[in-house]
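User: Hey, my collaborator sent me this sequence without any context and asked if I could get a structure. I don't really work with proteins. Can you help?
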Amino acid sequence: MRLPRPPRAHLRAATTVLTALAALSTAALATAAAPAGAADGAKDVSYRGYHVRVPSSWPVIDLAAHPDTCVRFDRHAVYLGHATDAGQATCPAGLVGRTEALVIEPLDATGRKSVDASTRIAPKGAARAAAPRTGGAPSGRIRQAVPAAGVLVTASVGADDAAAQTILDSADLDAGAEAVTLSAAPAGRAEAMSASAVAAQPGTYTGLGFDPCAAPSNAQMSAWSASPFRAIGVYISGISAACDQPNLTAPWIQTQTSAGWHIIPIHVGLQAPCNTFSHKVSSTLATAASQGHSEAQEAVAAAAALGLPQGSVLYDDMEAYDQTNTACSNAVMTFLSAWTEELHSSGYLSGVYTSATSMADLAGEYTTGTYTMPDHIWFARWNGKADNDATPYVPDEYWADHQRIHQLSGDTDETWGGVTINIDRDYLDVGVGPFAGSCTASLDFSAYGSISAGSSGGPVSAAQCLLMRQGYFTGTVDGAFGSGTTSAVQSFQSAKSLPVTGTIDSHTWTALLSAGTRPTLQSGSTGTDVKRLQRALIAARGQTLTIDGDFGPATTTAVKAYQTAQGLTSDGIVGNLTWSALQAGK
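Assistant: No problem. I've predicted the 3D structure and written it out in structure-token form, which is a compact way to encode the shape of the chain:
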């Protein structure tokens, strides 16, 4: 039974910041309205000889004059100059969401650190960069360097990236523009590659942590060594990340972990379809699954660029949603299951952050096998208690092996070592495994024969891995079918209403191999879900199939044969009914 939706876990203190912006003096608005501005609702903004036209309603904030300003992307604004550490420390900790905004900063030593392979470079003498450079740009952002004026321009993207691109395409230069030389190798990329390796994060730790909107500077983190916190959450990726991150680099990660800090990597991307954010998970389940895979790939790329290794837990920030809305809930669960599956395929562990009440959705599916469960959970329950208690929303026996973070309070200013930062407070009880992401056993076999106590080898390792991913096995994946494996198999069989024998026969293999999301697959489909289907079909009917993730003629024939045997419509399309039969071990 799904619990009713409570007040949102994040009640964000945006009012204070908005009031502060309203109080900015006219001197902070570094704009020069063009004559045509009134006619087309736009105004001209000039900075270091670079001109761009933006909607006339946008405030333009000179960061040199107002260094205590938070550079944030959840509202329309133009920021001129570099974001400051003091300013970013004032950002409300839980800002989520992104719209169109612009940052124009000098292309000096500080600005060059943000230039990477995704940055567009304007040609010599030009104000606009027509085509992206090699390398995919992070979602929610367009960044271009303009050497002709010595500026770096970052546009955040809301619901429609065309709006941000239109603003960038309006740029031109005046006689006051002073050119700089930009080296061929972006400074930011070279700096990232120079950082030494760090351990998997957040590692093993029990105690207090905090999460701000923007990563503090090294000096601020050093000052906070006087605090009781030894873990910090950082937003590493995601189209709904609302704050500028000038400090977050691979060397920053290395410096903080060397100083004893534990890093909680956060991806804040697509939100529930029943929420009001600009960027949402699709209500179409097949699309939601695809989005989950894509978001995980983005998070993995960001983690790797920051030097966060395989085995690290990457947390998807899914803000509180109405889980009584069945369609919305199913979309979120499908998305998160695909997120977890993709992270596992890349060697990372999966974490999910949401409100304690929304976490009840995951807990309700913990033993069903319908979805692939995350390895760690992070729940927002602002009761001020430094514990890992999530009852009644999550039973104590779920995610019980050092797999929890409790966000216990939020949106508060705390001062340590003379440095004030707006934070959410957390209590961590985390460890390094052995969880599903650390399972790298091969799952691909030409046949899946019966195995039981005393069996050994690759198929046993595969079974242990699959049982681990479903939350039934917590031992070591060693290929030895012992008492722990037998108990895990029996628990799985009981949950799936299969004969509780402790032996993995064709029915148990079929249920294990097919467990996960239920996207609609048909001829032409590709990817990890097709591989999962192919394995299950081999186990169910002993058919000969190549496990290649390509839904071709042979897979179509195998699907039709299985559907006929189960009394289903033999159309070769794998929908909910076909997945249900497979996951029931039929």
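In plain terms: The CA atoms of residues 192 and 250 lie 5 Å apart. You can pass these tokens on to your collaborator as they are.
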